[in-house]
TrEMBL record:
<dbReference type="InterPro" id="IPR004299">
    <property type="entry name" value="MBOAT_fam"/>
</dbReference>
<keyword id="KW-0808">Transferase</keyword>
<dbReference type="InterPro" id="IPR051085">
    <property type="entry name" value="MB_O-acyltransferase"/>
</dbReference>
<keyword id="KW-0812">Transmembrane</keyword>
<feature type="transmembrane region" description="Helical">
    <location>
        <begin position="431"/>
        <end position="448"/>
    </location>
</feature>
<feature type="transmembrane region" description="Helical">
    <location>
        <begin position="5"/>
        <end position="27"/>
    </location>
</feature>
<dbReference type="InterPro" id="IPR024194">
    <property type="entry name" value="Ac/AlaTfrase_AlgI/DltB"/>
</dbReference>
<dbReference type="Pfam" id="PF03062">
    <property type="entry name" value="MBOAT"/>
</dbReference>
<feature type="transmembrane region" description="Helical">
    <location>
        <begin position="87"/>
        <end position="105"/>
    </location>
</feature>
<comment type="similarity">
    <text>Belongs to the membrane-bound acyltransferase family.</text>
</comment>
<feature type="transmembrane region" description="Helical">
    <location>
        <begin position="469"/>
        <end position="490"/>
    </location>
</feature>
<feature type="transmembrane region" description="Helical">
    <location>
        <begin position="376"/>
        <end position="395"/>
    </location>
</feature>
<feature type="transmembrane region" description="Helical">
    <location>
        <begin position="308"/>
        <end position="327"/>
    </location>
</feature>
<dbReference type="GO" id="GO:0005886">
    <property type="term" value="C:plasma membrane"/>
</dbReference>
<feature type="transmembrane region" description="Helical">
    <location>
        <begin position="47"/>
        <end position="66"/>
    </location>
</feature>
<keyword id="KW-1133">Transmembrane helix</keyword>
<dbReference type="GO" id="GO:0016746">
    <property type="term" value="F:acyltransferase activity"/>
</dbReference>
């Protein structure tokens, strides 16, 4: 079962909603946990044991950390910190060890079945244990809360990566489903289905054909394939997030947003503060800050400051930390060099942005450039769009070498007139429909970028207008969704990570 399948939104989710609402409030957490494990087993079966083990490790590490000051009252200062650090390290090694064993040993020819969502719930487990160690999160005495936090069925497959303090109380609280949450939740689910089924799945055959046989296409056709993949990835991932966020909203669970109009970003760094937001936030809190504040890094920065001055040394700690952030980002996606290259690609870009930020600011001031004018904004958009598409090309390519060959062909063998005779494996009406739908999504993004909630605005309209609007969206999904005969079900891309 996957979020975009109608069996989820029309059967599984309504059944869970009904059972949850009919159950007494104090037992509703049981319904949710049963739904979580049922959903997990429908996809990964017996591999549920790995999720249960991760839950035991996470809960046990949290309780052990809380017990150290009590059981070892003779320890103080650095001795106490070392003891707690050892316990945290053990918990992280167990979680990461399982992740590496199940997901990354395939590089060495060892293929083991990995449960769905292991990359997501592993990061949530590490964040909880680390927060307990830091003292920013109280150790939870209730193992069921930890289990709910790691296994909530709407987010187990693709995130978002939440913190214990954000969702645990709402998951365990048993609050009644409010009519507004139910309506708003399903509205967001419908919008997510539109992006996934009408746009992303319609572009999938084109993307597969171009990337699997790029040697048969000229540069212009390859560029179309790259653009299509970028749109497919955005529409699918953000669409699935809409389905996930809508599902959480129904139960009153405040899941963190994972997208915020990324293509309206000003640069690569800003793009990643808007795209897969929770992964970036996790890497910032649990990789960037610990490394940039580590004693060896700070000592290195001090040495460089003495020799080269503060203007150079101030970049040392952030740059070293950024390297490990983007290396981790690449490795998290999978054990392939193209993912690591993808991470290093953004590392280089963001370091360049950091180094040139001050000179660019002075340049803008000197020539009194209007950075808010429409021309400058268009320039920023086009620059970012090129950067993102190059990155996604390497992300999707089978190998790094394949990515470079595709890029070279785009640059050296570009014939736009050849597009008229190119067979992309997708009918022209489908391409037109996808293009119009993409334009519609970007219009909605423009409105959201201005801080306007379309759902709220529609809710303020009279009943006939409200229902007409949402029936129209449902009709678009039913009529134009890429499903049924002639279409192959397209798996969720980020569920594989």
């Amino acid at each position: 079962m996957a979020y975009h399948l109608l069996t989820y939104s029309l059967i599984f989710l309504p059944v869970v909603i009904a059972l949850y609402q009919l159950c007494p409030a104090r037992f509703r957490f049981v319904v949710l946990l049963a739904a979580d494990y049922t959903f997990f087993c429908m996809i990964s079966g017996k591999l549920l044991v790995w999720l249960l083990l991760a839950t035991l490790v996470t809960y046990g590490t949290g309780r052990w950390l809380a017990a150290i000051p009590v059981r070892h009252s003779d320890l103080h200062g650095k001795a106490l910190t070392r003891k707690k650090r050892g316990v945290l390290a053990l918990g992280i090694v167990l979680i990461l060890g399982t992740l590496v064993t199940l997901k990354y040993l395939r590089v060495f020819g060892v293929t083991l079945a990995a449960p769905i969502g292991i990359s997501y719930y592993s990061l949530q487990a590490i964040s909880y244990m680390t927060d307990v160690y830091r003292g920013t999160q109280e150790s939870c005495k209730n193992p069921v809360k930890v289990a709910l936090y790691l296994s909530f069925f709407p987010q187990i497959m693709e995130g978002p990566i939440s913190r214990f303090s954000e969702t645990a109380d709402a998951l365990y609280g048993g609050n009644s489903i409010q009519f507004e949450n139910l309506v708003f939740g399903y509205q967001r689910i419908i919008w997510g289905l539109f992006k996934k089924m009408v746009i992303a799945d319609r572009l999938a055959p084109l993307v597969v054909k171009v990337f699997s046989s790029y040697n048969n296409f000229d540069g212009a056709a390859i560029l179309v394939g790259v653009l299509a993949y970028t749109m497919q990835l955005y529409m699918e991932f953000s669409g699935c997030m809409d389905i996930i966020m809508g599902s959480g909203e129904i139960f009153g669970v405040p899941l963190p947003e994972n997208f915020r109009q990324p293509f309206f970003a000003k640069n690569a760094g800003d793009f990643w503060r808007r795209w897969h937001i929770t992964l970036g936030a996790w890497l910032k809190d649990y990789v960037f800050y610990p490394i940039s504040l580590a004693k060896p890094v700070k000592n290195l920065a001090k040495k460089i400051k003495k020799k080269a001055g503060f203007s150079v040394s101030k970049f040392v700690a952030p740059t070293i930390a950024l390297f490990f952030v983007w290396l981790s980002n690449g490795i998290w996606h999978g054990p392939h060099m193209n993912y690591i290259f993808y991470g290093m690609y953004y590392f280089v870009l963001i370091v360049i942005e950091n180094l040139t930020e001050e000179p660019c600011r002075k340049l803008v001031e000197r020539f009194k450039l209007d950075t808010e004018c429409i021309g400058f904004r268009i320039f920023q958009f086009l620059k970012l769009f090129v950067i993102v598409n190059i990155g996604e090309m390497f992300f999707r390519a089978d190998t790094v070498a394949t990515g470079f060959r595709m890029l070279r062909r785009i640059v050296t063998d570009f014939h736009i007139t050849a597009l008229a005779e190119t067979n992309f494996g997708v009918d022209v009406p489908d391409l037109i429909l996808a293009s119009v739908s993409i334009l519609l999504v970007f219009v909605v993004d423009v409105i959201h970028e201005k801080g306007i909630s379309i759902r709220r605005k529609v809710a303020e309209c009279k009943l006939p207008v409200r229902w007409s609007f949402w029936y129209a969206v449902i009709l678009l999904v039913v009529v134009f969704g890429a499903y049924g005969s002639g279409y192959t079900i397209v798996d969720m891309i980020y569920a594989a990570y």
